[in-house]
């Protein structure tokens, strides 16, 4: 299972592109659409894979972009735009649970999480779905903080530096935490196959 994030390799390019898009949107609010289009899917996935509910994920995603649009004139490029955006998203998620005063358990039905269809035959697809369900089950056993690390890294595709900015920790701490989680999950999967 390859867990390399394409954004990690092009982090500087992405940050430069974001800085350009932010500058354009600050000069002309109509240009915000480019930032919205770029970050819509990662923000939505961040919420969906936590809430497992399309309506709530859409509502929170809309709230994030509304807040970002409103606060963009005051945004100062002191790091990654993505970290700023996901700090807003993380705060919205905390507010969501505080307001709804309920502990959240990820309740995404496995059937709703699509496995990409390719030319593979049925036995290969069944094996892939079984592995996917096993990984999903392992994710549910993680603490909220651990799940947040995984969501930011793999659903939002943030770099370790960006994750550190969102979670107020060092880049190296984020990297080591994710590596330990992945190693632990890998060992659990191997033990389950034995």
From TrEMBL:
<keyword id="KW-0805">Transcription regulation</keyword>
<dbReference type="InterPro" id="IPR013324">
    <property type="entry name" value="RNA_pol_sigma_r3/r4-like"/>
</dbReference>
<keyword id="KW-0731">Sigma factor</keyword>
<dbReference type="InterPro" id="IPR014284">
    <property type="entry name" value="RNA_pol_sigma-70_dom"/>
</dbReference>
<dbReference type="GO" id="GO:0016987">
    <property type="term" value="F:sigma factor activity"/>
</dbReference>
<keyword id="KW-0804">Transcription</keyword>
<protein>
    <submittedName>
        <fullName>RNA polymerase sigma-70 factor (ECF subfamily)</fullName>
    </submittedName>
</protein>
<dbReference type="InterPro" id="IPR036388">
    <property type="entry name" value="WH-like_DNA-bd_sf"/>
</dbReference>
<dbReference type="InterPro" id="IPR013249">
    <property type="entry name" value="RNA_pol_sigma70_r4_t2"/>
</dbReference>
<keyword id="KW-0238">DNA-binding</keyword>
<feature type="domain" description="RNA polymerase sigma-70 region 2">
    <location>
        <begin position="35"/>
        <end position="102"/>
    </location>
</feature>
<dbReference type="InterPro" id="IPR007627">
    <property type="entry name" value="RNA_pol_sigma70_r2"/>
</dbReference>
<dbReference type="GO" id="GO:0006352">
    <property type="term" value="P:DNA-templated transcription initiation"/>
</dbReference>
<feature type="domain" description="RNA polymerase sigma factor 70 region 4 type 2">
    <location>
        <begin position="134"/>
        <end position="185"/>
    </location>
</feature>
<dbReference type="InterPro" id="IPR013325">
    <property type="entry name" value="RNA_pol_sigma_r2"/>
</dbReference>
<dbReference type="InterPro" id="IPR039425">
    <property type="entry name" value="RNA_pol_sigma-70-like"/>
</dbReference>
<comment type="similarity">
    <text>Belongs to the sigma-70 factor family. ECF subfamily.</text>
</comment>
<dbReference type="GO" id="GO:0003677">
    <property type="term" value="F:DNA binding"/>
</dbReference>
<dbReference type="Pfam" id="PF08281">
    <property type="entry name" value="Sigma70_r4_2"/>
</dbReference>
<dbReference type="Pfam" id="PF04542">
    <property type="entry name" value="Sigma70_r2"/>
</dbReference>
């Amino acid at each position: 299972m390859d867990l390399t994030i394409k954004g990690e390799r092009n982090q500087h390019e992405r940050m430069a592109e974001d800085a350009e898009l932010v500058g354009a949107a600050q000069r002309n609010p109509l240009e915000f659409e480019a930032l919205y289009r770029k970050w819509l899917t990662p923000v939505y996935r961040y919420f969906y894979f936590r809430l497992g509910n399309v309506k709530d994920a859409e509502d929170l995603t809309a709230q994030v972009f509304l807040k970002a649009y409103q606060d963009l004139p005051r945004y100062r490029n002191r790091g990654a735009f993505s970290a700023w955006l996901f700090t807003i998203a993380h705060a919205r998620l905390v507010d969501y649970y505080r307001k709804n005063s309920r502990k959240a358990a990820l309740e995404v039905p496995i059937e709703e999480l699509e496995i990409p269809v390719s030319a593979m035959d049925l036995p290969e697809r069944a094996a892939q779905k079984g592995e996917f369900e096993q990984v999903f089950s392992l994710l549910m056993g993680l603490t909220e903080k651990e799940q947040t690390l995984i969501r930011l890294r793999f659903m939002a595709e943030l770099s370790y530096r960006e994750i550190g900015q969102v979670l107020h920790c060092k880049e190296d701490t984020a990297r080591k935490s994710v590596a330990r989680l992945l190693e632990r999950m890998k060992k659990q999967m191997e033990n389950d196959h034995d």
